[in-house]
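Lecture notes, continued. The same structure-token format from the folding unit now serves as the input rather than the output. Read the line below as a description of shape only.
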């Protein structure tokens, strides 16, 4: 069966015109709607005709034929375009399906998603099949194309081969290349990455940066090489520098970088009061962080920080659509656009009471109507982990001269080990734990000591990590083994054992890295785990991100990877992995 290359087929387009001619009835008529009209930058009253998933007409007229039409009087409501999340990582324990469903309840009806997990876990044929299935959801899904694994992995040249990257870039659902976590290699002369960037630009697709702490000169160089946007500004001055070099700036409010209020204050102090070059992102936050909302919450904060109301909404909708060249489909309530519309009680309250996504009610009068059946992941090559090997005490031997010290939730530095690590139990008078990364297929391991994660944690095992390999942390080898065996039994997950008993678990039955449960259930499970870990000495913002980033070489300074213990600044494997 040939792939449908166009958003609407010829017959559908003819039907849309027939609705205007009165030969077909709209499927939904929104009367007396007070809408945000970006063309005029005004709130205006209009009638909106919708046929299936498309806005057919916006204006004063009413259709002649409403025989097959739902009619809604919007008196007293304010209508704005569906919100867009331009930088989603839909694999932070939740999965793309569950996150899309949850996000829609807060009015975020379009997601532009990281493809990292799909690139690492699936071949491109299965990955593209999954993209096609996800396209059937009410939420609109777009994707990125990664150029590197964000860590040191085996067979990276095969996973991120030229043919694979080119196939992703050419896919109609892919809007950008990046994010460029491997930009130091780019600046050092990686011409293959530069070629992929050139290909993306040739296809009129964007390049997303990842430039924390980058100097003005570095930002200029990366703009010259093709980057369009960056989301790593952490101060008003860094925002200013990015604007000066021609970047679109993605303002971030995430579970490890809740920067937006500070950024807006510092931007205003610098005299920045034009907002056309800004967009919003929550940058793949943990489930519990989203309890307060998603893009709607960022719009609310912007309004509270005296950003003009229309600009605040545009940063969560129209600006994003314009940036990605999809304004003909998204970002406004206008003829021809996809019918993604949020219904508000007040323009100062961006959280909708009703939501249309692709012309379907996913929320109406505060009732969730998006209760689609759970997605079947087994047939997509993303079933539970089947671990065919056993973990034993011989795998938990430690002789490393130095370990890894946590500076915050995601930054780790080397430190000299001075305690005795030869026994089966570490003292709870300090914050050092046994620490292992072990291959999910049981072929290799790297053993060291982790300082700063917890001081009273007996045993934690997580199949959730950057690469899907397995993380072991704890004071007690016995409890680490118990937690591992329970994780194995679950088919993947995060498991904690204490005094010989499992006390916390989050099953991750989708390849060991994602849950098949709803986000609402994950929020409660995550909050319980965080409360538990805080009681055991975890003092940072987000343990889920800590687990994810232990092997992520886009952050300084020392990482455990498939290649071994890795010095990020010197790009050197300090101690290779041990074959089992």
């Amino acid at each position: 069966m040939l792939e449908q290359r166009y958003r609407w087929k010829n017959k559908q387009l003819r039907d849309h015109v027939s609705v205007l001619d009165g030969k077909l009835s709209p499927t939904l008529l929104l009367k007396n709607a007070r809408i945000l009209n970006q063309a005029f930058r005004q709130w205006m009253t209009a009638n909106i005709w919708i046929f299936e998933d498309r806005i057919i007409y916006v204006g004063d007229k009413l259709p002649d034929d409403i025989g097959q039409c739902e009619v809604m009087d919007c008196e007293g409501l304010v209508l704005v375009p569906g919100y867009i999340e331009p930088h989603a990582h839909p694999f932070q324990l939740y999965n793309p399906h569950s996150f899309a469903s949850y996000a829609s309840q807060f009015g975020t009806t379009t997601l532009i998603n990281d493809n990292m997990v799909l690139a690492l876990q699936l071949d491109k044929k299965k990955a593209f099949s999954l993209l096609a299935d996800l396209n059937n959801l009410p939420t609109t899904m777009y994707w990125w194309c990664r150029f590197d694994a964000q860590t040191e992995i085996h067979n990276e040249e095969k996973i991120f081969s030229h043919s694979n990257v080119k196939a992703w870039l050419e896919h109609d659902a892919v809007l950008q290349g990046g994010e460029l976590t491997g930009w130091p290699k780019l600046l050092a002369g990686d011409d293959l990455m530069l070629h992929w960037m050139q290909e993306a630009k040739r296809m009129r697709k964007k390049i997303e940066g990842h430039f924390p702490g980058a100097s003005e000169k570095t930002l200029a160089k990366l703009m010259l090489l093709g980057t369009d946007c960056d989301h790593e500004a952490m101060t008003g001055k860094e925002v200013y520098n990015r604007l000066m070099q021609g970047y679109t700036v993605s303002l971030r409010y995430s579970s490890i970088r809740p920067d937006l209020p500070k950024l807006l204050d510092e931007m205003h102090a610098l005299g920045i009061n034009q907002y056309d070059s800004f967009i919003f992102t929550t940058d793949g936050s943990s489930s519990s962080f989203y309890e307060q909302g998603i893009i709607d919450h960022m719009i609310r904060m912007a309004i509270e920080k005296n950003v003009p109301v229309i600009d605040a909404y545009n940063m969560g909708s129209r600006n994003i659509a314009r940036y990605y060249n999809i304004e003909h489909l998204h970002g406004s309530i206008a003829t021809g656009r996809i019918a993604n519309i949020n219904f508000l009680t007040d323009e100062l309250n961006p959280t909708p009471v009703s939501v249309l996504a692709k012309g379907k009610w996913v929320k109406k009068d505060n009732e969730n109507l998006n209760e689609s059946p759970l997605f079947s992941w087994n047939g997509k090559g993303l079933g539970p982990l089947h671990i065919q090997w056993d973990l034993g005490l011989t795998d938990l031997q430690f002789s490393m001269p130095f370990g890894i010290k946590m500076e915050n939730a995601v930054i780790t530095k080397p430190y000299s080990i001075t305690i005795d690590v030869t026994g089966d139990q570490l003292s709870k008078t300090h914050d050092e734990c046994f620490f292992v990364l072990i291959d999910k297929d049981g072929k290799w391991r790297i053993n060291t000591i982790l300082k700063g994660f917890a001081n009273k944690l007996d045993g934690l095992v997580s199949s959730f990590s950057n690469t899907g390999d397995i993380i072991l942390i704890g004071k007690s080898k016995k409890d680490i083994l118990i937690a591992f065996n329970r994780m194995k039994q679950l088919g993947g997950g995060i498991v904690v054992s204490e005094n010989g008993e499992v006390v916390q678990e989050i099953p991750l039955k989708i390849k060991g890295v994602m849950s098949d449960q709803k986000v609402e259930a994950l929020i409660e499970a995550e909050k319980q785990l965080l409360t538990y870990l805080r009681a055991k000495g975890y003092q940072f913002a987000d343990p889920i991100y800590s687990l994810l980033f232990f092997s992520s070489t886009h952050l300084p300074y020392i990482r455990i990877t498939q290649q071994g213990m890795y010095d990020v600044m010197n790009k050197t494997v300090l101690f290779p992995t041990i074959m089992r």
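Point for the exam: The CA atoms of residues 421 and 500 lie 20 Å apart.
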